[in-house]
Structure formats: C-alpha cells, structure tokens
Amino acid sequence: MRMRKKWWALPELKESPIFRYRPMENKGKWHEDFGNDNPIYLELGSGMGSFINYLKNTFKNKNFVGIDMEEGCLVYAKRMLEEEDASNVRLVLADIRNVDEYFQENEVEEIYINFPNPWPKNKQHKRRLTYPDQLKMYKKVLKSDGTIRLKTDDQGLYESSLKYFESEGFEIIFKTDDLAVDEFQDDFISEYENKWRSQDVKIKAILVRNVK
C-alpha cells in the first residue's frame, strides 16, 4: 500500500544535509561526498529508517546510503537519523531499478535488501529487487567479492531469489528458510520482522558473494 502523499516531505528532505536529491551527480564521487575512503554499504528500500539507523550508529567506520522511492517514508528516516551523528549516512529519493545510474562500477561493498515487495504474480516478477535484470546492475556497482543480503517473510520470493542469484553467477554463502534470531551476522531485528515472528512466520535469509 502506498502512503498518502505528504506534500511537505520533499521540501523538508531537501533542507537536510544528508539528503541527495540528484544521486546521479554523485556517481563515482560518494567517497568524496563522505570525505573519507571508508567502504560504502547500500540499503535498497530504507523505509522509515530503523535498519540504516542501526547500521550508521553501530559501524562508524563504514558509510551507508539508503534509497527509497517514497518521500513520505524517507522523511521519517531522515528525522530518526539526524537524532544522532549522521555524518556516515546519506539518503536518496530515487527509483531503485536504476541503481547503476547512481554508483559507478566497484563502488559498493555490500547491498542490503530487507523484506522487499515479493510481487507474487508471474507478470509482476520483473519488478522484484532480486530479479536477474536487477542483479546484473548490482554486479556492476558491487566490488568483486562484494555481498548482497536478503531477508524476506515470503517463501516464493526466497525460493525464486536463490535461482536468480545462481543464474547470475553469485556465490551463495548462506541460506535458510527459518532464520534464528542472531543467526545473521551484524543483523538488526526490526519492528516489521518482530511482527511476523510473533505470528510464527518463518524469516528467510540469503547471503551471496559477487563473483566477477
């Protein structure tokens, strides 16, 4: 379900020092933007920011870029992130399906995809964030041996994603259709995930390595 349009959200985002409205201008220049050479980690679909907020507070020696298509969500992520030092995080309002327009080859260390829309109907599969067309783009921007982490509550997306990753030459390092709490290294259990766990819905997870 799409959020109701918040006309004030984009102007507020544009006032923030951590927001990047034209990410294509940062292509190949993200380290310059952050002012350091720390590795860059990318979250696709940052929503209201709980996961990327955990990352930026926990790993100060890493840089994080969160992308989302909904300014109504991203503005709340911005507010949360700015409650503490946000020098190692940037937010982007953009179409995730064009990620290779925002990052150059080998610019990203790791990609996080947390509970994306599973697009369950066959005619919708091309919209999945793990669909082969997307994975081809991720391979470009990821470093050699860079990684992708996927978490989902949807069995169909989990099973299909395993096939997608294999078809595009990613090495599967870890997979499970029943993820235990604290089993995924450096993980964060969001309110969304807790909701599904409380209903005895199994959480699925995949970790893959980019092989070039």
What this model shows, in words?
- The protein is of the alpha/beta class and 212 residues long.
- Helices cover 29% and strands 23% of the residues.
- It has seven helices and eight strands; from the N terminus they run H-E-H-E-H-E-H-E-E-H-E-H-E-H-E.
- The protein has helices at 9-14, 30-34, 50-58, 71-81, 132-141, 155-167, 191-198; strands at residues 19-20, 40-44, 63-68, 89-93, 108-114, 142-152, 171-176, 204-209.
- Helix 5 links the parallel strand 5 (108-114) and strand 6.
- The radius of gyration is 16 Å and the shape is globular.
- Substrate binds at residues 121, 153.
- Pathway: tRNA modification; N(7)-methylguanine-tRNA biosynthesis.
Largest sheet report: 8 strands, mixed
Number of helices: 7
Question: Helix share of residues?
Answer: 25-40%
N-C termini distance: 37 Å
The strand order across the widest sheet is 1-4-3-2-5-6-8-7
The proportion of strand residues reads: 15-25%
Shape summary: globular
**Secondary-structure class:** alpha/beta
Q: What Rg is obtained from the alpha carbons, in whole angstroms? A: 16 Å
Low-confidence segments, given as residue ranges, are none
Provide the descriptors you would attach to this structure in a database record.
alpha/beta, 212 residues, globular, 7 helices, eight-stranded mixed β-sheet, 23% strand
